[in-house]
Amino acid sequence: MRRAFFLGLLAVSASCSPTADEPELPFQALFAVRGRWSGERELRLFVEDEPGPLARGELLAAVRAALQVWSKAGACTGALVETREAASVVLGWRRGAHGECVPFGADPSVAHAGPVGPGSFVHFDAGRAWREGELSLTHAAVHELGHVLGLDHGPDEESVMFPAPSATRRPLGRSDRAALRALYAVGTETWPGDLTVLRADGRPALVLPAVAPPQWTEFACFDTDGDGDDELLTWRVDDAREAGGALWSFHFAPGPVLERTLGPLYGVSAPGARLAFTRDAAGQRWLSADLGGAHARSLRFDAHGIPAELAEPAPQLEAPGARRSTGDLDGNGEQESVTLGP
Is residue 231's pLDDT more than 50? Predict the structure, then answer.
């Protein structure tokens, strides 16, 4: 198993009680997605009986509470099971170097998870002093099961998927709920900047919550990675320094359904810049940024859909057409369309 699969919790919150009001979130995208659980999302959790800093009963209680958080939100069903053979996810203590995982102590992580879907695992650092209210085992279990279900680290400090401490973190914040709606159509909440993907016959396929606030962002469809189907791109157009001209891309599986996100990639755009996307005669894929006046630059997308500036000058590119709000997002030969709003 590759180390790239492992996503950890760098630290956990001392509190997970909600505040009275949820503030407006100044992010281009509230959430990030690393994968999609295919089929029924049934979590059969086996907790190992290995020595750790807490009794197995305390670990069982934390895992049971974490499962209840996600199942109550509609993200999954599941139960604790008695044998490893019956499990889809195995949880337990580890210390220092263990298998192909990133060793505990090599970075600030206090727990980490394996890949999305059945056959995954969660490891908790046995070298930590776990205490509810200071280093919450329950909160870590909620976070890591979020990774197993496909959620990645996000920028919202009130999200359970935020990787660092926050005094206001809640069991599932707005960003976590937005991710569940985008991935698995769980919930009906709407936010400013929702993008709806419509199938070729006009029926809604999915909603991407709050990914394109119109005062901050623009969006377009383009095949960034050359795999034959289009991605949905959103990018910042305002002058917020923390945004740094960020670009996000949303990748889809047949349906279309959201499969993963890539971003934020900073420095791609700039306030007032006009972005366009095109291919050259050799089939290479390019992002052109018109920064105003005589200032312009071209970035080439690599095989992963990441734009990079070349050391050599870009080739002469044909003038790109208007940015598309339609594209074949799932490679089925039909054009989906993307609209702002629910």
Answer: yes
152: left (phi over 0), alpha (psi -120 to 50) or beta: beta
The radius of gyration of the chain from alpha carbons, rounded to an integer in Å, stands at 21
The string of pLDDT tens digits covering residues 196-230 is 999 999 999 999 999 998 888 899 999 999 999 99
92: which residues sit within 8 A by CB, 6+ positions away? 47, 48, 50, 52, 59, 121, 122, 123, 124
What end-to-end distance do the CA atoms of the chain give, in Å? 39
Q: Could you identify the residue written with the tokens 């900047």?
A: 193
CATH topology (fold) of 3-14+25-183: Collagenase (Catalytic Domain) (3.40.390)
**Strand residue runs (E) in the chain:** 7-9, 42-47, 77-80, 89-94, 111-113, 120-125, 195-198, 204-208, 217-222, 231-236, 247-253, 257-265, 274-279, 285-292, 295-301, 307-309, 326-327, 336-340
The rounded distance, in Å, linking the Cα atoms of 197 and 83 is 42
- b/e map 260-279, b = 16+ CB within 10 Å: bbbbbbeebbbeebebbbbb
State how far the alpha carbon of 254 is from the alpha carbons of 33, 257, 330, in Å.
Answer: 16, 6, 5
**Structural tokens at position 226:** 């050359």
Q: Which residue type, as a one-letter code, is found at position 208?
A: L
**Could you say which DSSP state residue 119 is in?**
T
In one-letter notation, the amino acid at residue 256 is: P
Pairing mode, if any, of strands 326-327 and 307-309? Answer: unpaired
Is the distance from CB of 168 to CB of 40 less than 8 angstroms?
A: no
- Domain residue ranges of the chain, discontinuous segments joined by +: 3-14+25-183, 195-340
Does the pTM surpass 0.85? The reply is yes
